[in-house]
Structures are given as C-alpha cells and as structure tokens.
Design goal:
Elements: H1 2-40, H2 42-50, H3 58-63, E1 67-79, H4 82-87, E2 93-114, E3 120-131, E4 144-148, H5 150-159, H6 164-174, E5 182-186, H7 187-192, E6 194-195, H8 197-205, E7 214-215, H9 217-221, E8 226-233, E9 242-253, E10 255-265, E11 269-271, E12 286-289, E13 294-305, E14 311-317, E15 338-340, E16 350-354, E17 368-369, E18 381-385, E19 391-403, E20 420-431
Parallel strand pairs: 2-17, 11-12
Antiparallel strand pairs: 1-2, 1-20, 2-3, 3-8, 4-5, 6-7, 8-9, 9-10, 12-13, 13-14, 14-18, 15-16, 16-19, 18-19, 19-20
Helix pairs in contact: 6-8
C-alpha cells in the first residue's frame, strides 16, 4: 500500500513536470513561429514560387491568356487656324485637344520557349484593342477635325534630304492630287488609317522605306503586319529583363514568310509586366514599350501603401529619357524634351515627348498656341509592388508630334518648314 502511494506520487511529479515542459515548449513554439513567419513570410514565398517564369508555372500559363492591359485615352489636336497660318497671317499654329477616344488594350504571349538551361524565356508579344464608347467623347467616325496631312508632310520631310531630282519628281507627281498640308478628316481614319496615294508615290521614289498603302497613327503603333519576338530573363535575379527584341515582318512571296527586320539588345531594361523579386530603389530600371521601339528610364521618387495593403515603389519617367537626341537624317540635335521614334514609324519624322511638352525646351511651344503643360493632369507614374515586383499601377501621358524638316522645296508645305506639329497624346492607365 505504501509502495503504491510512493509510485503514485512519483508519477504525479513526472506528470506535473511533463505538463510544465509542455507549457514551456508551447510557449517557445508560439514565440518562435511568429518570428519565423516575420523572417520567412510564407505567403510571400508561396507567391514568389507561383510567379516563377518557368514552364508549367502559374505565371507561364497566365502569360498565354488574353488579359486586360492599358486603358488608352487618346486626345487628338485639332488645328483651328490652318489657313491663316499657311498664309503667314498668324505666326502661331493654334491647336485644341479633342477627346478622349478610349481603347482597351488586351495583351498575351504566344510560342513561349524556355532556354535549355531554364534561365531565359523567348515569346512573341500580341496585342489588340477594343473601342470603349461609354468612356469616349463620341464615335471617332463621327468626329471630323482639321488635321495635319500626315502622308504629305511625312513624305516631304523625309525627301527633304534626297537629291533635287527626286524632290522635283515628288512635286510633279503630287501636284495633280491637289493635296493640302491640312485636311478635314474623321478621327477613326486619322487613327486607324486610310488609303492615300502619296504613300504609294513615296514608296516608288524611296523603295523599302514603307510597305503599306494606308497610314494611321495607331495603325502603325499596333502594326499587325509585324511580330515582335522577345527574350527575357527567367531567374530571380533578372526576371523579365529583356535580352533582345527581334522584329519580324510578314511578307507574302508565294507564301507567308517571316523576314527579320531588326534586332535590339538592352541593359537594365524590362518588359513592363514585371521585375526581379525584392526590387530596391537602388536597382536601375528602364521599361521598353513594343510598338514605340524606345526605352524609358525610370526614376525612383518614393514609396506608398497601396489599396491592397502592400507597399509599392513609385517611379516616374526620368527627364534623361528625353535628352541628347539627334535627327537621324540631318544629325542635328533635337530640342530638349523629345525623343525620335522614326524607327518604329518607318523613317517618318515622328517624336515622342511628355504631353503638352511638359519639362521640354520652351522652343518647342514657341510657334504653338493652345497647349497647357500641367503635370498634375498629365501624370507619369509607375507603381511596382516592393516584394513581388510586379507592376501594380501605371499612369502615363505621352505625346506624338511631327518634326517637319526643311520642306521649302514644295510650294504647298513650305510654310511648315522646320516646324513642330503636335498630333495627339495618350493617357495610359493600368491597374492590376
């Protein structure tokens, strides 16, 4: 009986110690687990794993699905004093912005091809647009404006540095057409193209420069006669960093053939869908826009807590993007604030700037009336999630203008020699 009592006492003490030990272990666990969660952030690790750029991953599958991209709000510059300007009565060309005409971009990628070592991924970018009538001023087909005759002015400017006999031939060929530097045209045709005999004349005088019969501002931007094949990094260190971009033009010669037209290589430049994980402000980044064929340097300006609760790094387009450019034909320096995009517009004299020439050389507005460079309206901002490093929100406002060269060789265009003509600008908004 005594032995049983002692045994029970010993068991009780053991049980008591086990309970204390269990309590202590539980406390240690509850103390360590939150610390590990803070350090390791399992949710972030799971997301990071799911967003690997590798065959079979969720990201790999998502890239092949058509997804909403930027919402493009286009504003076209209407010319209100074209006759007075051409006659010399007005020194300044008066413009007014008309819009918006809103289009939704949809993007996806085809023929995803990982490299043998899995460090890179090649793919063909695809894009299409849909008109959004409820967010637009009106149907572009119903809005007729006084607009620059882009085929005429582009052709004259492009040929301004050709031999005199070619310029004379151009004058003889277009005179019967009665073409004027400005014309009344509906916005739809202005944006998406219309057949123009001047383009055919240019192609005959300067073969290989253009290979299309119609010309439209957005039609050239979303050129469906070409494909862009891009290769990007696929590791955590360089995810979505562009290694090269090849442009292929579809030419029908008995069958459909892909002709490699150009190739570009890059440094610290990313396909704007994403960036390497755990991005920091010290990492230099640029983004590349297909269709414009130009790189934009991003400048870090701060961080912000976004609607979803996460922290985002905030960038703007650096002014360095718009400096040091030269005319590719004359090699004369452009005024500060514009970059040449003629490579994507088949040598035609187009430049890109911030809307209304914000942060640009005042000389660009010297002979223009009606521009209102307001940076609170025309925002350029990119928000990138700090942990996952995907683009969360984008707001861009960029303008296309024409830099007309010395076109005094043509009587119809001579008053526009060495003039900058704003054509249109677009606000691009995107939020994931």
């Amino acid at each position: 009986m005594v032995l049983l009592t002692r045994r029970d006492a010993i068991n009780a003490r053991i049980t008591s110690k086990n309970k204390i030990l269990a309590v202590l272990l539980t406390g240690v666990v509850f103390l360590i687990v939150p610390i590990l969660i803070i350090i390791l952030d399992p949710i972030h690790l799971i997301i990071k794993y799911k967003l690997r750029l590798t065959k079979g991953s969720i990201l790999y599958e998502l890239l092949q699905q058509e997804m909403q991209a930027g919402r493009l709000s286009v504003y076209v510059f209407n010319i209100t004093n074209s006759e007075r300007f051409l006659s010399g009565e007005d020194y300044k060309l008066k413009v007014e912005e008309i819009g918006p005409f809103v289009f939704q971009e949809y993007r996806w990628y085809e023929d995803l091809e990982p490299s043998e070592d899995g460090t890179r991924m090649a793919m063909t970018a695809k894009v299409r647009t849909e008109f959004i009538p409820e967010e637009s001023l009106a149907d572009p087909k119903d809005v007729i404006l006084r607009l620059p005759n882009l085929p005429l002015l582009s052709s004259a400017s492009l040929l301004s540095n050709y031999p005199s006999f070619i310029r004379s031939a151009f004058n003889l060929m277009i005179t019967p057409l009665g073409a004027k530097p400005f014309l009344n045209l509906d916005v739809h045709n202005f944006l998406w193209g219309y057949n123009n005999p001047i383009i055919k004349i240019l192609n005959g005088l300067a073969p290989g420069v253009v290979y299309f019969d119609s010309f439209g501002l957005l039609d050239r931007l979303y050129d469906n006669t070409s494909d862009y094949r891009i290769e990007v990094g696929a590791t955590d260190k360089d995810r979505f960093e562009i290694k090269w971009v090849k442009k292929y033009r579809h030419i029908k010669m008995g069958g459909i053939e892909d002709v490699e037209e150009s190739i570009q290589t890059f440094n610290n430049t990313y396909e704007a869908e994403g960036y390497p994980p755990n991005l920091t402000p010290e990492v230099p980044i640029n983004f590349y826009r297909l269709g414009i064929c130009r790189t934009f340097a991003l400048q870090y300006i701060g961080s912000r807590i976004m609607d979803y609760g996460g922290e985002a790094l905030i960038y703007t387009i650096s002014n360095d993007t718009f400096m040091g450019e030269v005319d590719p034909i004359t090699l004369k320096p452009y005024p500060y604030g514009v970059i040449d995009i003629s490579k994507c517009y088949y040598g035609l004299p187009f430049v890109l700037s911030k809307s209304h020439f914000i942060d640009s050389d005042p000389i660009l507005r010297e002979r223009l009336d009606g521009l209102n460079p307001d940076r609170d309206v025309h925002i350029n901002e990119v928000a990138i999630d700090r942990r996952v490093s995907v683009t969360y929100k984008t707001k861009l406002s960029l303008q296309v203008s024409m830099m007309v060269d010395d076109v005094s060789f043509n009587s119809m265009t001579k008053m526009l020699s060495n003039t900058v003509i704003p054509i249109a600008y677009a606000r691009v908004a995107n939020q994931k």
